[in-house]
Amino acid sequence: MVTRADIGVIGGSGFYSLLDDAEEIEVATPYGPPSDVVTVGRIGARTVAFIPRHGRDHRFPPHRIPYRANLWALRSLGVRQVLAPSAVGSLRIEHGPGAIVIPDQLVDRTSGRVQTYYDIDGAVHVSFADPYCPSGRSVAVTAAQAGGWDTVDGGTLVVIEGPRFSTRAESRWFAGNGWTIVGMTGFPEAVLARELALCYTSLALVTDHDAGVEAGDGVTHEEVMEFFARNVTRMRTLVADAVQALPGERTCACGTALDGIKLPFELP
């Protein structure tokens, strides 16, 4: 039985078949239970822990996901690198449904979400200028290109509170700021990963153009889910390829994000 992992995947329930020799593990954290039991298994020679972001029955809307518990659970199992596939809307007419965006920047437009582990016993200020792991991004871009995806290397993900979609005015405002894609779950995942000195890489599948980009009736939940479901097999392949290409030893700055900082408690 595999009970440790060095790579984590946070994604949809369609990723369960990603793993070989899979075992389910219940992980307790100081922040309550994660979204669901953690499935640990193998992809090739790599050990991987998978958490369905919304729960296997999709019971957690974006603003209610136990983000802190999810990242803590992964680290407690030994994970140090995280891949985070998700569905997003495009703010750019040239990046249509089916494109894979590997963002290099993030804008937080959420409200009320707890976005730190360090909210007691003194402040801990972690650098977040570049939210995503450069090594993970490079691997993800190469894997997507090799898989024949319309691959966008870089761009800004704006994360909204949800669960509603954007108004046309909001969507045009986001696009006018030069941002690339819009989603609901990429924050606080990214900053919590950084606070645990984890590498975090977003693999964003464009399922639609956002409301202000094209004329029409706007985005619907059913359209997003149907498009993602049609592409989930390709996404599993992309994630599996990226997992196997991630470096065995980290040389990026993510692992040293907490160096020199006095933490109020010990990390797992």
Features:
268 residues, alpha/beta, Rossmann fold, eleven-stranded mixed beta sheet, globular
- The second-level CATH architecture is 3-Layer(aba) Sandwich
Classified in CATH, the superfamily is Nucleoside phosphorylase domain
Task: Give the helix level as a range of percent.
Answer: 25-40%
Rounded mean pLDDT is: 93
Count the DSSP helices. Answer: 5
Q: What's the number of structural domains? A: 1
CATH topology: Rossmann fold
Enumerate the spans where pLDDT stays under 50 for 5 or more consecutive residues: none
* Classification by helices and strands: alpha/beta
Per DSSP, what share of the residues sits in E-state strands of 2 or more residues?
15-25%
Report the span from N to C terminus.
21 Å
Shape: globular
The topology string of helices and strands comes to EEEEHEEEHEEHEHEH
Rg over CA atoms: 17 Å
Query: The biggest beta sheet, please?
Result: 11 strands, mixed
Number of strands: 11
CATH class: Alpha Beta
Structure description:
The protein has one domain: Rossmann fold. Helices cover 25% and strands 25% of the residues. The chain has five helices and eleven strands. Strands 1, 2, 3, 4, 5, 6, 7, 8, 9, 10 and 11 form an eleven-stranded mixed beta sheet that branches. The longest helix has 25 residues, at 221-245.
